[in-house]
């Protein structure tokens, strides 16, 4: 009994220390975010002139009002929403069909294509930027949302295929066989049987695509040449591009406003995150 009690006490102490360590790490990770929030609620003074504090001396929403009234924030927001939604629809639409085919059908070259996709995804995107820029310039697609949607969808399709294929592998084939016996066609099988079962993977993958496009900076600032065509990432860059008008409190306020929609989406789908990502890692 004494040994059992000692083991329980040791286990509780280990858990307490582990929880304390995790809470400390979480707080340290939140410090930059809390500082940015504090800076956004402060005045228009320089960020480097004041000490490090997590609460401003005088709370004001002046910076948020300036972002809305003096900068084309809502234009940047609408551009980001259009690009993110369009990319998500295109990428997920192609990826669902492709990942289901890779999961269920054993055609020649299947494994080779999957490995090739994985290798292509290993190369950094910046390597293809110059070639894509020349191609878009020839096709007169610079400063075009359609061109960026094609680039983003092509980039995220590989991740989407691999993640959803792993989830499709976990769905019992017997369910589909029973549906075929009942007379379900291939499209009905995918739409009415498989997709409802794969909802966590589809939702999580779609949100990952959304977050990628929402935060993407390199292609957005390279291919979108007009200030009114900028996404939120490009708009944040525009705020800091001029040394004479640079304002870190204003930039912090814009960053907080950019992060809020994604945080809202993330909290709405967090119940799907664990099942959608872990099942997507199953080896096919």
Automatic annotation (TrEMBL):
Instruction: Tell me if Cell cycle is a UniProt keyword of this record.
Output: no
How would you describe this protein's topology in the membrane?
Multi-pass membrane protein
Mind listing the GO biological process terms from this record? maltodextrin transmembrane transport
Q: Which residues cross the membrane?
A: 73-102, 114-136, 148-168, 189-214, 248-269
Mind telling me which GO cellular component terms the entry cites?
plasma membrane
Specify where it is mainly localized.
Answer: membrane
* Gene3D superfamilies for this protein: MetI-like
Keywords assigned by UniProt? Answer: Cell membrane, Membrane, Sugar transport, Transmembrane, Transmembrane helix, Transport
Its localization reads: Cell membrane
Q: Where is the signal peptide?
A: none
Q: Which superkingdom is the protein from?
A: Bacteria
List, alphabetically, the InterPro entries matched: BP-dep_ABC_trans_perm (IPR050901), MetI-like (IPR000515), MetI-like_sf (IPR035906)
State whether keyword Transport applies: yes
Cited CDD domains: TM_PBP2
Q: Which PROSITE patterns match?
A: ABC_TM1
GO: which molecular function terms?
Answer: ABC-type maltose transporter activity
The UniProt entry, under Pfam families, shows: BPD_transp_1
Domain ABC transmembrane type-1 positions: 77-269
Protein family according to the UniProt entry: Belongs to the binding-protein-dependent transport system permease family. MalFG subfamily.
Q: What is the protein named?
A: Carbohydrate ABC transporter membrane protein 2 (CUT1 family)
The scientific name of the source species is Kineothrix alysoides
């Amino acid at each position: 009994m004494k040994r059992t009690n000692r083991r329980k006490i040791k286990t509780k102490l280990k858990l307490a220390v582990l929880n304390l360590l995790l809470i400390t790490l979480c707080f340290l990770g939140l410090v930059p975010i809390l500082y940015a929030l504090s800076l956004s609620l402060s005045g228009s003074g320089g960020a480097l002139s004041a000490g490090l504090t997590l609460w401003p001396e005088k709370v004001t929403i002046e910076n948020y009002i300036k972002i809305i009234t003096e900068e084309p924030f809502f234009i940047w927001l609408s551009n980001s929403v259009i690009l993110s939604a369009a990319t998500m629809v295109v990428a997920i639409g192609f990826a669902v069909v492709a990942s289901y085919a890779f999961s269920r059908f054993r055609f020649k070259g299947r494994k080779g294509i999957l490995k090739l996709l994985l290798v292509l995804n290993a190369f950094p995107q910046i390597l293809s930027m110059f070639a894509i820029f020349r191609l878009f310039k020839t096709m007169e697609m610079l400063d075009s949302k359609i061109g960026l949607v094609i680039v983003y969808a092509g980039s995220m399709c590989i991740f989407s295929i691999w993640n959803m294929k792993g989830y499709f592998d976990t769905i019992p084939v017997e369910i589909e066989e029973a549906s075929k016996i009942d007379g379900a066609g291939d499209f009905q099988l995918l739409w009415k049987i498989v997709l409802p079962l794969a909802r966590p993977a589809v939702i999580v993958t779609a949100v990952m695509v959304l977050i990628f496009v929402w935060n993407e900076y390199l292609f957005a600032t390279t291919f979108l040449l007009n200030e009114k065509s900028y996404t939120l990432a490009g708009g944040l860059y525009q705020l800091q591009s001029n040394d004479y008008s640079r304002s870190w409190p204003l930039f912090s306020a814009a960053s907080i406003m950019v992060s809020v929609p994604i945080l809202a989406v993330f909290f709405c789908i967090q119940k799907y995150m664990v099942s959608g990502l872990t099942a997507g890692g199953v080896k096919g």
